[in-house]
Design goal:
Elements (H helix, E strand, L loop, with lengths): L2 E7 L4 H12 L13 H6 L11 E10 H8 L7 E4 L13 H11 L5 H33 L5 H16 L8 E9 H10 L3 H17 L20 E2 L5 E3 L3 E8 L30 E9 H7 L6 E2 L3 E7 L2 H5 L3 H14 L5 H6 L5 E10 H11 L6 H16 L3 H6 L3 H4 L13 H4 L11
Parallel strand pairs: 5-10, 6-10
Antiparallel strand pairs: 1-2, 2-4, 3-4, 7-8, 8-11, 9-11, 10-11
Helix pairs in contact: 5-6, 5-11, 7-8
């Protein structure tokens, strides 16, 4: 089950800090900490909530599903920081506890067709387990082909990891995970009111209870009669099921200010773009795209929180990565997708989303300002990024090259395109010398 623990908080009583912040605005000298005002009536109920954003709480959330992170905690607002357990450390792949999964589902969804649900989850894991050894062998072969400078230690360490990343398309996102999640007080209040599925409501309820256990005088921040009571899930279309071997990125609009700055303030590991006045016009220069990616890559994409995203739609397509294509698993994937689509007539949509396989594809629009885009592309065109999200960034890069934005495209590339690899131990093994003469973005298999 989901367990939420409060592991860190701002080292000051919330009402003290809220009052101090408010009084600072209307006094001629620094106010005394601990001198309270009527926070509930003068600030909270009147909507002056910036004063509540000085208090931060860090929660460890253990046992939640991958889906409840991707389509819950990380879906809508950008006002959080998070670090999530890698799927490589999930027991779901090698030793799944089906009893635990069944208990989890029945806790949050009543009257569900549990036998069919569990059969689907187990089928995906069986496909994974039956093919992971062969996928690892192919990953080793592809590394040697694409990354000539990769040594044996790199191959031994990364082939199983890459095989798992690509084979996991058959694994259900009901898989348990854990994360550290930091938010401020006004964000927690908004999340409490807006939670839209059974898992998210449970998580936020536990967060609220942990805060009120220490600060009961904040009870008015969490008004139960203001909570959202209906469920939400994305639009789902299963009319035309297809296997896709490429993600897609369509550029919808480019709107640049005349005075953009493509130069970094300094060249080190700290990205200073949002902190330099010279780069402020980049914030109003935007590129709007529409992408279709797997749920696995949607989770990766959410890590770039300054980029805005629209509501996702389930397209009815399934992503088949290069290793699986080499293994000729198209028909296996198509039947698996059909099994999932059949469940849409038997179970609640929020549960259908919760058990979605990683390979199920979603589409959504993205609005990126130039500073955010440059940061994203530098990270995602690096071969340390996973294959699918690399190809989304490659599509955008190629569009810019083909449509007279070459100067911009060249600024979007990672360090290895410009000088040398800065990834240290994470060096991917590709031929960096070749990049000095050929700056194209090649297709990758791993």
């Amino acid at each position: 089950m989901i367990k939420v623990s409060l592991i860190a908080k701002t080292d000051e009583i919330p009402l003290n800090l809220v009052s101090h912040a408010a009084k600072t605005c209307y006094t001629s000298k620094v106010p005394e900490m601990g001198k309270l005002i009527d926070v509930e009536n003068n600030l909270f109920k009147t909507g002056h909530h910036t004063t509540f954003q000085h208090n931060f709480f860090t929660f460890n959330i253990d046992g939640l599903s991958i889906s409840s992170a991707t389509f819950g905690l990380h879906l809508t607002h950008p006002f959080y920081n998070t670090d999530q357990r890698s799927g490589r450390f999930s027991k779901m792949y090698s030793n799944p506890d089906y009893g635990e999964i069944k208990e989890y589902i029945l806790k949050y969804w009543d009257n569900t067709n549990i036998d069919d649900v569990m059969s689907f989850i187990q089928k995906g894991i069986t496909i994974y387990q039956d093919n992971i050894e062969k996928a690892t062998e192919i990953a080793e072969k592809f590394i040697k082909e694409e990354r000539p400078n990769a040594d044996e230690d790199y191959i031994k360490m990364n082939a199983p990891k890459i095989a798992q990343e690509q084979m996991r398309v058959f694994i259900s996102t009901i898989s348990p995970t854990a994360l550290d999640y930091t938010i401020n007080l006004s964000t927690l209040s908004a999340m409490y009111r807006s939670a839209w599925n059974p898992e998210l409501r449970n998580i936020v309820e536990q967060m609220k209870n942990l805060v009120l256990a220490q600060y009961p005088d904040l009870s008015y921040v969490f008004e139960e009669d203001k909570k959202k009571v209906d469920n939400w899930s994305p639009e789902m279309n299963f009319n035309n099921l297809e296997i896709k071997t490429n993600p897609t990125c369509k550029v919808l609009n480019i709107d640049f200010d005349d005075d953009i700055n493509l130069n970094l303030p300094t060249k080190d590991s700290v990205d200073l773009r949002y902190f330099s006045p010279d780069n402020m016009n980049n914030n109003i220069s935007t590129i709007k795209t529409e992408i279709e990616v797997s749920i696995a890559t949607m989770g990766q994409d959410q890590r770039h929180r300054v980029i805005k995203r629209s509501k996702p739609k389930i397209t009815g397509n399934f992503y088949l990565p290069p290793i699986l294509k080499e293994m000729k698993l198209e028909q296996v994937a198509l039947q698996f997708l059909q099994d999932y689509a059949d469940l849409s007539n038997k179970i609640d949509n929020t549960l259908l989303l919760a058990i979605a396989p990683y390979g199920l594809m979603v589409s959504y629009k993205k609005l990126s300002d130039l500073n955010g885009l440059m940061h994203e592309q530098e990270k995602r065109l690096c071969w340390s990024a996973q294959e699918e999200i690399y190809h989304i960034s490659k599509s955008l890069y190629d569009y810019l090259i083909d449509n007279n934005y070459k100067d911009l495209a060249e600024k979007l590339t990672p360090a290895c395109y410009k000088k040398c690899c800065i990834e240290g131990r994470r060096y991917c093994g590709r031929d960096i010398n070749k990049l000095k003469t050929d700056k194209s973005t090649p297709n990758r298999k791993i």
